[in-house]
Amino acid sequence: MADDVLSQNEIDALLSALSTGEMDAEELKIEENKKRVKTYDFKRALRFSKDQIRSLTRLHENYARLLTTLFSAKLRTVVQLNVASVDQIPYEEFIRSVPKMTLLNVIEVPPLEGRVIMEVNPNVAYAMLDRLLGGKGEGINKIENLTEIETKLLQNIFYYTLESMQEAWSSLTQIDPILADFEVNTQFLQMIAPNETVVVISLNTQIGEATGMINICIPHVTLEPILPKLSVHYWMQSTKKAPNENEIKQLKKRIHVAEVPVIAELGTTNISIQDFLALDIGDVIRLDQEINEPLIVKVGELPKFLAQPGKSKKKLAVQILDEFKRGEQDDEW
Questions:
Q1: Same domain, 144 and 83
Q2: Whether 139 and 228 share a structural domain
Q3: Residue 86 CB neighbours (<10 A)
Q4: Are residues 57 and 9 in the same domain?
Q5: In this protein, which residues make up the domain named Flagellar motor switch protein FliN-like C-terminal (predicted)?
Q6: Domain total of the chain
Q7: Which of 236, 269, 296 is the last residue of a domain?
């Protein structure tokens, strides 16, 4: 679609050609009416619809927010991630687009087939490593010279991203991500056929002063079982299900054994702080409740019944007289 949009320089050149007579407007109209032919590259087959791409974009916008929170906490510095683009391209084109020596996290996502690649730009990876080792977060590209300790530190921090991935995907399907492999050379990573379609989600990443990209590569074979869920209709429909008979019985059973506080309120009053601090044993507090008026019984802090005080087996008790009737004057309850 970008090929059909003219730049400002092209528009200016077109207007100039029309005004000088180098180009005839009538000829342009005739050519416009001719049948247009668009080239189609079968090596770059479009396997995903626009709706599905939009759904993947929404999903990974949420993932980017979760990663922002995670990396900010782990690295103790300002980290910002956001979705830059979502494209469907052949796998070989993705491999050619990333640096020869980079950070490649290979993630299995059972029960889905295939593997997901999280490619982290060396500038970003070393900024993370520098922060983990107490530095300012400077990005230096020395991925091919990673020591065993540095490799372990980076593996650990990307291990925590699996939980965020599981949470982000939970709105679509339940997955159990596993960090299956950790590579730095793309030549040793050949997961699928070179012409297989993949979706590449590019995340703009900023860690302190260092910037770079984190690319998430998802093969079509991985998303194929859940493609119907990526449609707009699926996202718009309600996923709420009515409880079945067994769930209703369990709910009633739990309600019946639930404990709630029951309070018989003798009355209330207002006194000053000075009088409250001066209270002593034997003092009498005058309440706003007449002795012949029924008491209000509260259940869970809400007035429910009217009762009269008394005794039962030599213990103080109340006898329920009536249900508490709520009126306009009781709206504050």
A1: yes
A2: yes
A3: 21
A4: no
A5: 254-322
A6: 3
A7: 236
Report the alpha-carbon distance of residue 306 to residue 320 in Å, rounded.
Answer: 6
User: Residue 93 belongs to what domain range?
Assistant: 44-236
* Tens digit of each residue's pLDDT (9 = 90 or more) over 23-69: 666 666 655 555 566 665 555 566 788 888 888 888 999 999 999 99
Give residue 113's pLDDT. 87
Give burial (CB, 10 Å; 0-12/13-18/19+) of 332.
Answer: exposed
Q: How many CA atoms are closer than 13 Å to the CA of 235, on its beta-carbon side?
A: 14
pLDDT in tens, 291-330: 888 888 888 888 889 888 888 888 888 888 888 886 544 5
44 SS3 class: helix
| Domain contains 332 | no
The radius of gyration of the chain from alpha carbons, rounded to an integer in Å, stands at 34
Alpha-helical segments (H) within the chain: 8-20, 25-33, 50-75, 91-97, 122-132, 148-159, 161-169, 220-223, 232-236, 245-257, 273-277
User: In the chain, how many H helices and how many E strands?
Assistant: 11, 10
Of 153, 175, 154, the C-alpha closest to 164 is: 175
pLDDT at 215: 92
Whether residues 232 and 253 share a domain: the answer is: no
Is 49 a member of any domain? yes
Q: Are residues 123 and 28 in the same domain?
A: no
pTM higher than 0.85, yes or no? no
Show the tokens assigned to 128: 């993370």
Is 92 strand, coil or helix? helix
The verdict on residue 301 lying in a domain is yes
Average pLDDT, the chain: 81
Q: Please indicate, yes or no, whether residues 127 and 149 belong to a single structural domain of this protein.
A: yes
Is residue 63 a contact partner of residue 186, using CB atoms and an 8 Å limit? no
